[in-house]
Amino acid sequence: MARLSVSNSVIYELAAENPDMSDVDRLMNLYWALCSVVRSGTPGDVVELGCNAGRTSVLLEMVLEAEGADRTLHLYDSFDGLPAPSAADRYLKQGDCRATESDVLATFARWNLRPPRVHAGWFEETLPRHLPERVAFAYLDGDFYESIRTSLTHVWPRLSAGGSVVVDDYCDRELSPRAWDGLPGVKKACDDFFAGVPASRRVLVGVGDLAFAEFRKPAG
C-alpha cells in the first residue's frame, strides 16, 4: 500500500466531511500530538475511545502510515450510542452518537487505509480485556463523566512514560476562553482522576471553540 502523506489538503478534506466532530483545530492538534509521540520513539500502540464512524480515526492511521510507524490503531465504541448520562452531564442523551462497526470500516476503505482493530462494547467491558499492553497515545472522546473516568482508569496504567492522552470536550474557560462548555462531565472526570495522579496538563487552543486537553505521563 502506498504511503499517504498527511497534507494540508487532506486535513481540509477530512474537516469538511465532519465539521461538527473533526474540524481543522481538532485534526491539527491531534496530528501534532500523535506525531510528537511517534517521533520521540515512545513505545506502544495508539487507541481511540469513542470512535463513532471513524472520521477522526482515519487521521490517526494516516499519521502512523505517513511516519512509517509499526504500531496498531485500536478503536473502542459501544456502537449503541452514548450510555445514560450522570448528574454531571448535559447536552447529549442516551443513545446519541450512534454508529456501526461497518461505518468505521467503510470510512477506512474510502481512504484506502489499513483497517484498525475495532473493539465493540461498553468501555467497562472491553477495556480490561482488549487494551494493548502498552499505549503510546490515546484519544478519549467519551462525552460523559463515567465514560471518561473509566477510560482514564484503564488507559493511564498502560500508558508508556512520555505517552500522551488527548481528551476531547475538556473545557477550561480560564485558559481557553473560546472553548465549548457543553459537556462538563468530561473536565470533572479528568480533574477527579488526576487529583492524585502525577501528569502534566496542557489545555490546547484553536481559532474556534476547541475544547481539548493533553495529559502527559512523566518520562522517568
From TrEMBL:
Gene3D superfamilies: Vaccinia Virus protein VP39. Signal peptide: none annotated. InterPro entries: SAM-dependent_MTases_sf (IPR029063), TylF_MeTrfase (IPR008884). Transmembrane segments: none annotated. It holds the Pfam family TylF. This is Methyltransferase. It comes from Streptomyces caatingaensis.
